[in-house]
Specification:
heterodimer, A: 114 residues, mainly beta, seven-stranded mixed beta sheet, B: 116 residues, 11 strands, 0% helix
């Protein structure tokens, strides 16, 4: 009965490959995100989608392409993987009420590029 | 550059002591403030939020906010070994446009170790 689920949990791949991470939320939230957490635990926003529309697109290489087929799903496709892409990628969805934004995270995908 | 700053630690406290975690932020327009706890290998989990000046208490946790000083803190009373984790401070910045562009900006986290 997971609220925000992402797959796979672990992803090990070679440089230059293309890979995708999938995310689904069953909370009925309108907004979903991708965050990247580096080895020093710094959690940085990459993208935000609101009702399937791209809202936030931080300075991210265009090798990263998010896709939202519907408001419950936000996938991340990465082309031509590089060593520096190794990190934990978290999907999240948010609930905004009374001026308070609450984020709910998926369990993360640990990406290792060799 | 809108930033959220935290001391990365590690912060070590003995079991039963008070752990004090601090966070400063640069954007005076920030509206609400959050503390997330992240255990090793797990996802961040919301434990407290605060949006008014003063203190907010929830069990052993107290969040304190001082908007004039742009400072938010988290106190953990009677610290337990199970509190050992990385604590992430997050700030809800003013949106660029529309409700959908709200986002949380995170600090780099403070690693807390509670020594039995």
């Amino acid at each position: 009965d997971t609220a925000v689920s992402q797959t796979p949990k672990y992803l090990v791949t070679q440089m230059g490959n293309d890979k995708s991470i999938k995310c689904e939320q069953n909370l009925g939230h309108d907004t979903m995100y991708w965050y990247k957490q580096d080895s020093k635990k710094f959690l940085k926003i990459m993208f935000s989608y609101n009702n399937k529309e791209l809202i936030i697109n931080e300075t991210v290489p265009n090798r990263f392409s998010p896709k939202s087929p519907d408001k419950a799903h936000l996938n991340l496709h990465i082309n031509s993987l590089e060593l520096g892409d190794s990190a934990v990628y978290f999907c999240a969805s948010s609930h905004f009420k009374g001026g308070i934004l609450k984020l709910f995270f998926g369990s993360g995908t640990q990406l290792s590029v060799l | 550059q809108k930033e959220v700053e935290q001391n990365s630690g590690p912060l070590s406290v003995p079991e039963g002591a008070i752990a004090s975690l601090n966070c400063t932020y640069s954007d005076r327009g920030s509206q609400s403030f959050f503390w997330y706890r992240q255990y090793s290998g797990k996802s961040p989990e919301l434990i407290m939020f605060i949006y008014s000046n003063g203190d907010k208490e929830d069990g052993r946790f107290t969040a304190q906010l001082n908007k004039a000083s742009q400072y938010v803190s988290l106190l953990i009373r009677d610290s337990q070994p199970s509190d050992s984790a990385t604590y992430l401070c997050a700030v809800n910045l003013r949106p660029l446009s529309g409700a959908g562009s709200y986002q949380l900006t995170f600090g780099k986290g403070t690693k807390l170790s509670v020594i039995p």
